[in-house]
Amino acid sequence: MTREDEFLVRPRYLAGAGEIGRVLQPLVQVHGWPHENDPATGRLAASSPCGRIEVAAEHAVFHLWRITVRARPQDAQLLWWATFTKETPVEIVGALVQALAADRHIAPEEIVAEWPGHPTTAWRPLLKAGWSASNLTALYFQDPDGSSITVHASPGAGSTVVDGIRVTSPDGTTTLEHTPKPDRLFGEGVGPWMIDATFGPDWEDQWTAVLSARTPVRYLNMLTSALANPAPVVRTRQQISAATRAAAAATRTAPPRSANPFGHVEADFARSDPRHPNQGHPRR
Known about the structure:
- The chain is α+β, with helices and mostly antiparallel strands and 284 residues long.
- Helices cover 24% and strands 28% of the residues.
- It contains seven helices and 14 strands.
- It has an eleven-stranded antiparallel sheet with strand order 2-3-4-5-6-12-11-10-9-7-8, covered by helices on one side. A three-stranded antiparallel sheet has the order 13-1-14.
- Helix 1 (21-29) packs parallel to helix 2 (90-106), helix 2 packs antiparallel against helix 5 and helix 4 packs parallel to helix 5 (217-228).
- It is globular and about 50 Å long.
């Protein structure tokens, strides 16, 4: 592949998936996480040495990336989780994955925090980047027997109530939504925290991230920081859809590709933490 085949694409949330192998590669090659590959199901997974975190790529399901966290390795119940559909840019998925991998060394208590944190911290990077916030509204009905129900619908009978918040990108293609309710009240493919991007009619031009109610706001903030990052990402000609060409800016000039897109993160933590696998001597 030549430099002429590569493009810089911005904003990154419209760039398409990219090379999905680059999410798991740092976990295995830098952090030394055990991994498994099941050719029968197409499932690739890496698990933290402590057994509490798993990052899986499941090719047979609509949600390709599934990140799960347990308070203790033996727990059947998940503490929190996140899923990302197939076309989510790897730079956005990778930001969450690398934050977890780094915190396992320097701040493991953050991964299993009892209190997730104040939700406004999650969308602060988006507001700083010029995204706009608005209320999510729903209809609240009171039955004669005293029971009540809240539904998402257009205004009609009943009282309209604020049901959450939506933060929208300047181009209108991408939103972050937070509906502060327990996970059990949501169906398949939806949840308390959602990021949706739609910039074309095909599946390759849409992606969704869903995160559970207990997801620590620390990691949501890192995720939205990656989402709002104005730096372009590298894509090959074949990885850029027609909708991306129409909605995003693609420049042919691209710098040499790094073997590890999160190398600067690894170097910073390796310098500061003697427990890191590189023992204070980051790869150069």
